[in-house]
Amino acid sequence: MSLTVPSKISIPFAESGSRNVINANLEAGDASNKATYTYGFPQITMTPKASGGLPPFGRDMNGILYSVTAMLQYMQAGGQYTYDASFATAIGGYNQGALVQQADLSGIWVSTADNNTSNPETTGADWMPLDSGSYSFNVTTANVTLTNGQAAHPVLIIGGTLTGSRIIFVPTFRQIWTIINNTSRGSYTLTIKTANGTGITLTNSVEQIVCDGTNIYRVTAEQATTVPIGGLVWHFGQTIPSGYLLANGQAVSRTLYAALFGVLGTKYGSGDGSTTFNLPNLMSRFIRGGTVSQLGTTASDSIRSHGHGVTQSAHTHGLSDPGHSHGASTAGAGSHNHDRGTMEITGYFGANTNDGMQWGGAFYERDATKNGADGNNDRPNGHLGFQASRSWTGSTSSNGSHTHTVTVNSAQSGISCGGATANITIQNYGATETAPAHIYGLPILRAV
């Protein structure tokens, strides 16, 4: 079936007419035939007049119709009622899905439970805000706890100068907020969280966060929700995006990056031992898959043991030997003479003062028959001989020692090989490290 859109009520019934205000029950001084919301028109108005009945008041009818039509007019004009504690108690609580206007008229509360009597403007746990604009506040010398009404705004604008690290506590909404953090914080941190859940550290930028009803998470354009705390991405911009840290081994705050510290601990260094911890250092290093027990360990570069084969194409060399000889000669310096020295031959021949001629020594008488009568060698006419085979009385002048120079011709053999020498040489080659072709980027860790 199709429904016809009824006309809107531009004027409540009996707006200018005479009408009574309808109460819940009869009050002191009210006539017995007055209408109430509890009983409607009383029984006396339904009793015949002859039996003592009284007619209803026309003003009551006008009052009732006025109330109904005025409410319809308000709602048709887009109006919503704010939370009413008395009304909630009277009706036993708002039903799930009920809508009420926020107190500052900037948005709508939606009930998430039946019989809901909690106040959405304070600590009501069973209300969720719908889009309701922005809310501005300052954080300076103390933590800030946002009321439900304040946290109902989808945009939170934060100002002020921090005098210490501060926390913003928000209700346990299932809500998405856009945070505009304009605080001056220096070295201090600004964290947003629920009372009992985990939170995040806000950066000085515009960012989006989400609450799952207990914990706070960051959702920004720079980081996908698939990157967990401690997850690594490569970044090729010159500015590191908010929520990330450069994985260069630096020491960072355990408080400021509590979530990351909960994941990494002191696996990569304990920082100063109390307030900081170290990030992994990926500078000039490649990442290799491993087991959980291998996390944090590093290895120096190396080359696996291997061999080099040398391949040379088959070839032959012709060999030629024409034959040859070596001539030799001695120098003439070996010729020499020996001086025999002086041989003295002694003898005498001459007159003898006693009886004439005498001889002796090398001279001898060849014919002894012709000696003198007295037997002496004194005959001048005797036959004399000369005997030269006598003993030498001298010696040679030197032993004649000498040398001979022998010269052998130094001519080459004449053997030739028909081909050039290969002269194969294996060169040493390499750089200062073993690495494939690569490009440098920034390894960054999701920190918050």
**Distance between the amino and carboxyl termini:** 55 Å
In one word, what is the shape? Answer: rod-shaped
**How helical, in percent, are the residues?**
under 10%
Query: Main beta sheet: strand number and arrangement?
Result: 5 strands, mixed
Rg, Å, rounded = 69 Å
Overall mean pLDDT: 80
Topology, number of strands: 25
User: How much strand content do the residues show?
Assistant: 15-25%
Pick out the low-confidence regions.
370-375
Helix and strand element order: HHEEEEEHEEEEEEEEEEHEEEEEEEEEE
Q: Report the structural category.
A: mainly beta
Concise overview:
With 448 residues, the protein is mainly beta. The chain has helices spanning 58-76, 85-91, 148-151, 258-264; strands at 99-101, 108-111, 127-129, 134-138, 144-145, 155-159, 166-169, 174-181, 190-193, 200-201, 206-212, 216-219, 232-235, 244-246, 251-253, 276-278, 318-320, 328-330, 347-352, 356-361, 363-365, 384-386, 406-408, 416-418, 442-446. Among the domains are: 133-221; 232-285 and 440-446.
Descriptive report:
Among the domains are: 133-221; 232-285 and 440-446. Strands 4-6-8-11-12 form a five-stranded mixed β-sheet, with no helix packed on it. The protein has a four-stranded mixed β-sheet with strand order 5-7-9-10, with no helix packed on it. A three-stranded antiparallel β-sheet has the order 1-2-3. It is rod-shaped, with a radius of gyration of 69 Å. Strand 1 (99-101) and strand 2 form a beta hairpin. Helix content is 8%, strand content 22%. With 448 residues, the protein is mostly beta strands.
